[in-house]
Structure formats: C-alpha cells, structure tokens
Amino acid sequence: MSAGASIVRETGRGAVDLAERARIADGKKTRMGMIYAILAAPSLGLAFGLLSVVVGKWPFNLQAPTGGFAIVALLQVPFGVIAIAIFSVVSGTWREPIRLLGHPVSWWSLFVAVGGFVGDLCFAIASGLIGGALGGAIGGLAGVVGAVIAGILYREKILRWSTIVGLACLGVGVYLAVSGGTITAPTHGIYLVVGLCVMFVAVLTWGFETFAISAGTDLLPAEGFLWWRAFLELILANGLLFVLFPMARKMAVDVWTDPQLLAFGGVIGFGWAIWMIMGYYIGVSYAGAVRGGVLTNTLAFFFIAFFSLTVYGEPFSAVVVVGTVVMAVGALFIVSEPIKYIARRRGR
What we know:
It is a single chain. By secondary structure, this protein is mostly helical. The protein has one domain (34-346). Helix content is 84%, strand content 0%. The chain contains 13 helices and no strands.
C-alpha cells in the first residue's frame, strides 16, 4: 500500500517537474522572440526610410501611383527574395519551401503574401504623399491591430491596466505625430488626406498579416512559409505592375540599368528581409502576435520615422519624434506583464 502511494507521489512530482520545465522553456522562447523582434526593428527603419525618399525621385516620380507600385515590385521584393534565398541556403533550410508544397494548408502562404503586398504597396504610395516620418509613425499601429485580432481569436487576456496605459500612450503618440507630420509633409490638402487614408489601410492589412503569420507558423514550417510569403509577393507585385501600368516597362528599364538605384534596392530589400526573418518569423513565431507583433511593428516603424527625419533628410519635427517615442513607450506597456499577473499565472 505504501509502495503504491510512493509511486503515485513520485509520478505526480514528475508530472509537476515536467510542467515546470515546459513553462520555463516557453518563457525562454518568448523572451528570445521579443529580443529578436527588438533587434530587427532598425533594419526596417533603414530600409523603408530610404524607400520613402527614393519613391519621390526619378524614375518613380514620373507617374503616380505607378512609382510606389514599381519600387516595391522592382527593388524591395526582388532583393528581399534574394536575401531570403541566401538565408535558406546558409541555414540549411532550403528544402523546406519544397516540402511545403504538399502541405494541406499551404494556401495560407498566399493569403499572407497578399496581405503583406497590400501593406507594402500602401506604405510606398502613402510615403510619397505624407513622407516617411508620418507614415512610419502611423504604421506603428499595425502591431496593435494584429495583437487585438490575435487576442480575440486566441482568447488571450491582454486587457490589463498596463494594456490600457499602453493604448493611451499610442493614442497620444499618434495624435502628436500626425499633428507635427502634417506641417512638414510633402503634400497638403486632399493629397495629404488621401495619403493618411492609404496609410491606415496599410496598418489594417499589416495587422492581419501579423496575426496570419503567428497562426501560420503554428501550422507550417516557418522557413518554408517565409520563402513562399516573399516569393508569392514577388510574383503578385510584378504581374500586376506590368499588366495594369504600361509606364512600368520604362521604369523597369530605367531602374535595372541604373547602378545607384540597384544599390538602393539592395539596402531596401535586404533590410526588409532581415526584418522579416528576425522580426516576423522568429519574433512573432516565438513571442506570439501580441508581444512579438507589437514590438517588431511599433519599434520598426519608430525607426522608420526617426531615420527619415535624421538620416534621410526629411524636414525635422520634434513633435513627430516625441510622438513616436510615446508610441514606443506605449508598446512596451502593452507587452509588459505586471508582477502580480505573472504570479497568478504561475500559481495555476
């Protein structure tokens, strides 16, 4: 009798130890994802900050919105696909995209690619109207949209006092950024309003993409998913560009015969790919759409605004800088977990 009780106690203790180890491992994975999400942010800031400057120059300024469409299809995505291909070969995961073809939900990659393409295209078009600084400040809301969608569908409890404070900071930050950005924007009046509306469409589609990537990496191998998400965007972008915009053919010749534009494309595409690999497919898949998505989006777009105002020479606005800083602080509040809340979760 006592021997049986001892076995039961040991079995129960072993189960508790395994659960504790699983909890610790999950916590380490989440923290690692958050670190990668933070580290990825400056790369997108450099890439899209440059994109917002180049989209207003020759040959992309010959026709709107063809120029914004062309810079995504001809520079950003092709060089991004090259960078992701290099990553796949170096990391030894080049077989994963092939294996993914037979997966029952491989179509999810197309869904994510469409969302990402629409977001990228809207940002490129909007940045030519409102500038990269204002576009970056507004784009930081994409992480919150993805977090809300994931919280609702995954039934994750994200409504805490820290979340409310974070959302309030985001609201104040956006208000400050828009107030300061409208003064220094390259256009005004109806063009500015159109640019703001297009940017908010980008926020919504990127938010859905953030959730879709979080869900997709739960179902599909992340490396293969990453490749097809970028490659399908390449096919979509170039197919639609050359079919819908005859002017794109001349732009393509001008772009691919200009060494400086190709160098710009390398910076934009490789920076975007680094952010995709580290921020989306490691950050979001490890830390989730709430923590990883909010961090990688809000901080990345903070750096887009900051680099646009400092490195890339847009008219400086202290109000926009303060607004983006407040938004970044709000994101940190949203992803933080109060000590009492953590204790309750661990005590379950």
